[in-house]
Protein: Urease accessory protein UreG
Organism: Streptomyces siderophoricus
Amino acid sequence: MHLDHHETFPERHTYSAAAPVRADGRRRALRIGLGGPVGTGKTATVAALCRALRDELSLAVVTNDIYTREDAEFLLREAVLPAERISAVETGACPHTAIRDDISANLEAVEDLEDTVGPLDLILVESGGDNLTATFSKGLVDFQIFVIDVAGGDDIPRKGGPGVTTADLLVINKTDLAPYVGVDLAGMARDAKAQRGELPVAFTALKTENGVRPVSDWVRARLADWTAGPA
């Protein structure tokens, strides 16, 4: 079959960074996106962050699934936040479409949460499981966390991809499994450093006490910068 390389493809939507203040003049919530492949522990990370931060911050969550509300229902079952603070988006397409290319459904969910349960300090936007190219539009989130896990193999940082190389924080999860899957954590750290330069990397084991602390501390620091920044 002949492929016409001159065929024109639909252009991606582009968005500038969202304004830091709402229409009513109030500073809006900090928005942090969490992406990563299927099964790496994104929803578990969101749940752990909610438990760690809910007593000190006013926060809410937007989840993305293709055809279900499974991630939102998990958070509801775990009672990490009141139900009105958890919103589910059904993307109907590849997850990166709704977090990068056409963010309208997610943006509406974020703004609705601020209107109904605000004022909020922080909104977490969790992408559905995607691949190493998944990134968030700056029109949707202010910072991006990308989650991989040791069970996927210690070569994942070497493979790179925009999620690994450009996310504001790379999380390498399930470190407690490393001895059982033959993964060299020091090697993963070196490879991540080579790919990311000075961008930070956090190692987490969410089944352990305070296992999410490296991520929650990073979130607190970003929120402090956000609050102190110019409106």
Q: What stands out?
A: The domain at 27-225 is CATH 3.40.50.300 (Rossmann fold).
